[in-house]
Amino acid sequence: MAVFDPLGDQVGRVRDVVAVFRAGRQAPRVVGLVVEVPGRRRVFVPMTRVTSIGAGQVITTGLVNLRRFEQRPTETLLIAEMLDRTVGVVDRAAGQSARVTIEDVAIEETRSREWRVTRAFVRRPRPGRLRRRGEAFVVEIGQLVDVGIVEQRQGAANLLAAFEELKAPDLAEVIHELAPKRRLEVASALDDERLADVLEELPEDDQVEILSVLNNERAADVLEAMQPDDAADLLSELPPEQAEQLLALMEPDEAADVRRLLAYDENTAGGLMTPEPVVLPPEATVAEALALVRMEDISPALAAAVFVCRPPLETPTGTYLGLVHIQRMLREAPHEVVGGLVDRDVEPLSPGAPLEHITRHLAIYNLVSLPVTDESGRLVGVVTVDDVLDHLLPEDWREADDDLGDVTGELPRVR
Fold first, then answer.
1. 200-220 as b/e, with b when 16 or more CB fall inside 10 Å?
2. How many Å apart are CA 102 and CA 108, to the nearest integer?
3. Core-most of 292, 301, 344, 375, by most CB within 10 Å?
């Protein structure tokens, strides 16, 4: 749900609900919302700052503390930690109990203007191995037992459904903030392509932790789905024996690209480059080039230019002839050939070019990608500005909080 201030301006979007479970019969108290504000920052909004919830929106007083949300040991995140949890449910009238899985929870405002977790939508597992889903029903939250006990294994289907619309960087942020056990459960439930995209956005420690709990065959499939330069960076963090086992399980062509990247120092053009740029022969037309760069799986940095080479067109290519900027192609007729449009003024990098040399080249030519050629003049890869930024920023840049100060003047989080 979108979150608005009293003037109707959107300040963020709800990503989770924070509740505190206490021993006894009292319904768990909702203490606040986790709200994502611009900049992919997740902040805590106390329920005392919420004036209304309904009609698909949350209205607040507009006072938001911009410190990044940090979960406390006594707190439970209803979406991240409650969904898919297996608990007991007691039918007091029949004097029986059963095991159920939580698929949704309800919160309600009381007369004292407190918000409480009141009910749960649960599903009873179907006996035997039938694939049909079991009976689903609503129970009062007081009927559930073992809610505070973390299962040995918890599913993730409903949590992932709740976050289905998130882009990979945003889902990575959600997964990173989960408890280690829950993080591994959620990551393991993603399909290979989605997990590969998420791994590329996670800190190195999380990447290694997640990859290490996958079986080797699954880990190799995920590495194949990653960009080769990101896969190489991840494998370089693993013990050499484990990295070699995974490379041996990958498809030979995919493994060859990664092995080539692993041969270079990580702070050189060879270590930073991707071996899968958009490459075309000189006789290709502008129409063909534009059709390639508009493909969804090509990043904006790689789509900014095509690289013209003699066959073969897979790296290492034949002789590198030059690059054609997308802006130049947009100004030309579709039938024009790219060989007549190449920009030969951009000097290629050598694989051993250091990071400082790469950043200077990007600044001089005002580009977002640069070609990398070997001593024979063959294109071996392309360095993009996003990979350069990854290496220029501090290692913990994904986790570090910007010192934005408190623009609202609100006091630190107190409850």
1. bbbeeebbbebbeebeeeebb
2. 18
3. 301
